Each structure stands twice: as C-alpha cells, then as structure tokens.
Amino acid sequence: MSAGVEATILVVEDESILAMLLEDFLLELGHRAPTIACTVCQALETLAARDVRFAILDINLGGETSFPVADRLDALGIPYIFTTGYGAAGVPERLRSRYILQKPYGADDLRRAIAAHGPVAN
Q1: Which Gene3D superfamilies does this one have (predicted)?
Q2: Fewer Cβ atoms within 10 A, N terminus or C terminus of the chain?
Q3: What CA–CA distance (Å, rounded) separates 55 from 74?
Q4: Treating both helix axes as pointing N-terminal to C-terminal, what angle do 107-117 and 16-28 enclose, rounded to 10 degrees?
Q5: Could you say which architecture CATH assigns to the domain 7-117?
Q6: What span, in angstroms and rounded, lies between the C-alpha atoms of 13 and 104?
Q7: pTM summary value
C-alpha cells in the first residue's frame, strides 16, 4: 500500500439508495467508509488509483454489467462478491464460482459473506 493511502472496500452499485444502505452496513460491521462507483468505468478508475482490498459488485449496472470489473479484480488477486436480485442467471461460466449475495439482504447476511469471502474488518 502506498504511503498515505488507506486500503478500501470498493462498492459497485448504480442505485444510490442501495449504495448508501450498503455503506451503512459496512460501517456498522466495523469497516471504513467504502469507495462507491456507479459504473464500470468509475470502478476501473478506482482500481487503478486506490488500494482496494475487497469489492462488492452489483451485477446489473443499468445498461452494463460489472463483469469487466470482476475480471480486473481476478487479475489483481482482489477478493470480491456479487450482489443481485436475479440470482446466478446470466453470470458467465468463468465467474460462477464467486459468491452471489441475493438481494434483498441485511447486515448479518453481508457480515457472513465478507467473513467467508473477504478480508477481516478494520
């Protein structure tokens, strides 16, 4: 990690209400405030500029999917989970081994997913 730059959780979510709720859950669970990206482009820029240690990706982002972000996270060796209201339908075969947190979910569901698939809380 670069000096003066804190590791972060990246949240990729295009619905602002859901992004704020997810931020509240993460804070409640003891994590720092996440970096929120609404688009694939914003998420990829964040990965280039920040020390991301874990990511939570909504699969459907308006007219695009978060799969390019997942591919980049895989290349960087950064753990992540998907969130969706649609289940595993439409997830490419190469990404089906990743955990999918079904919407709607609560803080306890998120805690269990992070404990099993991500870093420990700060």
Answers
A1: 3.40.50.2300
A2: N
A3: 11
A4: 70
A5: 3-Layer(aba) Sandwich (3.40)
A6: 14
A7: 0.91
